[in-house]
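Now for a concrete sample entry.
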Amino acid sequence: MKFSPWIALLLAPAAMAQTSAGVSSEWDVRTLLDGLDRQAEHLKPIIDQVKPDTWVSKGAPSAYGSQWKSAEAELGYLITSSQALSRDPEKLTLALDTYLRMQAMESTLGSLIEGIRKYQNPALADLARSVMTENSTNRDRLSQYLRDLAAQKEQEFQVADREAQRCRGAILNQPTPKGKSSH
């Protein structure tokens, strides 16, 4: 029986599916993203209470105003990115974007919290820090999912590349058909 290289291509998805044992299920990822969205939604009213324009009269640098606007924007980007990832949890670029958006939002908010504490309301600063800290579990889980997903995608690429190389070799090693003789 002659082996067809096309059979290998049909079997490759099954081999790739076996490599994904370490990646969280789609349901787990959606649960994680729901938690991340809830935490982000808890931050929104806190950020809405921040009034950096009133801080300048108390000696605050005007840069806090742009940090506040950045925090608002980053929070919106994080929510949008998380929702996109929830719709397509296997997409590595969306997982990476969501993680980077979360880091950017936390970094911006971390700096803004110090201004809130010093120039507005220490209790509000503590609340913002508390919500950020509660989200650390989601950040860690998203980070792990991102690493697992990247590893899975690398394995899938390696399997597909090996199969393509093997198929190319099989095609090149096939005998060339004899030409028809002309009359």
Observations:
- Confidence is low (pLDDT under 50) at residues 1-20.
- Residues 169 and 175 are 12 Å apart (CA to CA).
- The chain has one domain: 25-168.
